[in-house]
Amino acid sequence: MCGPLSGDQGDTLKAGAEDSLTAHGRPGRDRRMRGLRWRYTRLPTQVEDTLSGEEGNEEEEEEEAAPDPAAAPEDPMVPQLTEASQVLSASDIRQLSFHFPPRVTGHPWSLVFCTSRDGFSLQSLYRRMEGCSGPVLLVLRDQDGQIFGAFSSSAIQLSKGFYGTGETFLFSFSPQLKVFKWTGSNSFFVKGDLDSLMMGSGSGRFGLWLDGDLFHGGSSPCATFNNEVLARREQFCVQELEAWLLS
């Protein structure tokens, strides 16, 4: 027969009941967890890890295969030279090829004249050009190692006045290539005298000129091409000169 519980016994039973409810996830646990935010991290499965790794590899391959938007356009057909140039490197030739008119692209280059083989003589250059009608690339290196020259729309020849077309231009590697195209201001493209060769003119100044010995020359800004001085100084001495027929 059970009698009434004393105060201590009642408290003991009450505490035991609360502990029992807490152990089974009942109100005791609810009181302690009330107000907490749930956080959990979902762990990927082995299959997901494998797929994620494959996707990552595919993205890396796509990034490697993607073309650089800032890359230069496709190179034109690299011309074939009849012999190696003593002035221009392969990179110089490739850069210049971008600026030639379409009718020249892909044509072989024939070395018509060079000072190391034919001597320093403008008359010799004229003689070597006889019978040629195609465009010509005139390139030279001066005593400072500067490389520059001109593209002429037709062969270099003796003339009473200026000749050529707007395809003619001047250029200089200083050290990056700079090209000076026709401005339309005048038509003073090329003029061949007995004792001098001139390309581009205006106000008594020439974009490029060479003396009868092809040893001394000069370069000044001119209206025809609005060019800079092609060499490091306006007066220069030629160390090597080449004339290439581009047809």
UniProtKB/TrEMBL annotation:
Residues 86-247 form the TLDc domain. InterPro entries: TLDc_dom. GO terms for cellular component: nucleus. Residues 1-76 are annotated as: Disordered. Residues 51-66 have a biased composition (Acidic residues). GO terms for biological process: response to oxidative stress. The lineage of its organism: Eukaryota, Metazoa, Chordata, Craniata, Vertebrata. Residues 29-40 have a biased composition (Basic residues). This is TBC/LysM-associated domain containing 2.
